[in-house]
Amino acid sequence: MLQEKPPDSNEQAQEFAKDGQKLVHEGKWREALETYNAAIKVDSSNPEWWYQAGRCQEKVGRLDLAEQSYRTALNLRADHSPSRHALVMLMANSGHRDEASRMVQGWLAGNPRSSAAYAEDGWLYLQSGDLPKAQARLQQALAADPNEPLALVQLGEVYEKMNRPDRALVLYERALVVRPDQPPVKEKVQRLKAQGVGPPKPD
Question: 39, 50, 62, 192: least CB-packed within 10 angstroms?
């Protein structure tokens, strides 16, 4: 008779992460952080667990630990876009905008074909209110990868600011097809539809 195999570390970590995701949806950030930390103890080589732990640390006000977690994720996988975006946002929003900009420029220089790097630069331009440059960068990102999630959402925000909510809606919906687990984007779609926004008409 075959004995059941004990769960391997990857399966255990996946279970912890699944619980963490559920707690995040419920807004239980401290409990979610404990769960992601448990996943990290079992498998510290997965950048996703470090990224999720960083998100939770930000929510409970531990910005120093959040920064460490995002940097650890990027050390494990330099192209982990969610961690890079979270780190750039954290830097920009905590008074270190120049450092955030240098980080993105360095990323672009080292990865001139990276859609995620162009999307990040577009996000910085959007934050500074330069809509034409933001639009150009985000369109470059989507030319490199039509399914770049950050570029889709940020270009949607650009179009909203340009009073083209119809185009924004299309981009938000595309972003949700690519990455369904984006509650803030779902809220944008619901808000626009509630306002009667529909598909864009031909120009």
Answer: 62
